[in-house]
Design goal:
Blueprint (H helix, E strand, L loop, with lengths): L1 E4 L2 E8 L3 E6 L10 H7 L3 E6 L16 H14 L2 E9 L1 H12 L4 E7 L7 H17 L5 H8 L2 H6 L1 H12 L3 H13 L13 E6 L7 H10 L4 E5 L6 H4 L1 H12 L6 E2 L3
Parallel strand pairs: 3-4, 3-5, 5-6, 6-7, 7-8
Antiparallel strand pairs: 1-2, 2-4, 5-9
Helix pairs in contact: 1-11, 2-3, 4-8
Length: 268
């Protein structure tokens, strides 16, 4: 489905009934990145997925973009779907979008899950991700994809699934260069660190033990910032949890969102 918003089209999909659950993909990806999770979640959710600004089958307007653009985009989707309050799970940049949405519109959020998300990057970490944003702006994904696959997946997984990694690489390379670069710039330059203390919705925070971009230290900091949050560190894993560990992620999300905390449709 397509929704016209702020002069561009948002591609989105809604499936299932009952508890509203929004899934937000990472930078350089699309709504399809959640396929393995959706297949495993089972019944009980009205799942909303969409291609964020600059990605997938949504329009890629000229940048620059801002984190606030992604907040208003998600609000427009919830309004179009007649969802008053939703559970929201975001992966990586999607986790940052979920953070920003919860801070701007807390009344629209029931529960939150940040999977492989970031906060409080060190100066060195910030410099590294900004350097990747610069590379994307000048040379496209060809310059970054090899190192990305090493960051995302364990050596054992890469050795066992070369065809899957090739598909992942192709998907990233197929991104619109300007849209990908503009979105990555937002991801690189945004950090909601101290504001996270203002989040009061029940929150799940999870990452891989060996994720060097969305580190366990970041996850623990988010856990400390958000009162009453739950923290999960997946042993042995890196960044690409949705692909390498879909069973673990789906089980975790299903259990956490089973108590929906008041997520509601407005449909009559």
């Amino acid at each position: 489905m397509k929704l016209r918003h702020d002069g561009y089209d948002i591609n989105y999909d809604i499936a299932g009934e009952s508890t509203p659950l929004v899934l937000i993909h990472g930078v350089g990806s699309s709504l399809g990145s959640w396929d393995g999770i959706v297949d495993r979640l089972g019944d009980g959710f009205r799942i909303v997925r969409y291609d964020t600004l600059g990605h997938g089958e949504s329009t890629k307007p000229a940048g620059p973009y801002a984190l606030a653009d992604y907040v208003t985009e998600l609000r427009a989707i919830l309004d179009a779907a007649d969802i008053e309050r939703a559970n929201i799970a975001g992966f990586s940049f999607g986790g940052m979008i979920a953070q920003a949405f919860a801070l701007a519109l807390p009344e629209r959020v029931a529960r939150l899950a940040f999977i492989s998300a970031v906060a409080a990057r060190t100066p060195e970490q910030r410099a590294a991700v900004i350097a990747r944003a610069d590379q994307l702006a000048t040379g496209g994904a060809e310059r970054t994809i090899g190192a990305a696959l090493e960051r995302w997946y364990t050596p054992e997984f890469r050795a066992a699934h070369p065809e899957l990694l090739e598909r992942q690489a192709s998907r990233v390379k197929d991104n619109d260069p300007s849209g990908y670069a503009a979105a990555y710039r937002v991801f690189a330059e945004s950090d909601l660190d101290e504001e996270l203390r203002q989040i009061h919705a029940p929150t799940l925070i999870a990452t891989g033990e060996h994720d060097i971009g969305s580190t366990p230290e970041m996850a623990r900091l988010m856990h400390d910032r958000i009162a009453g949050s739950r923290l999960v560190i997946f042993p042995g894993l890196r960044h690409g949890l949705l692909v390498e560990a879909p069973d673990l992620v789906a089980d975790l999300l299903r259990d956490f969102f089973a108590s929906d905390g008041g997520a509601t449709d407005q449909r009559q």
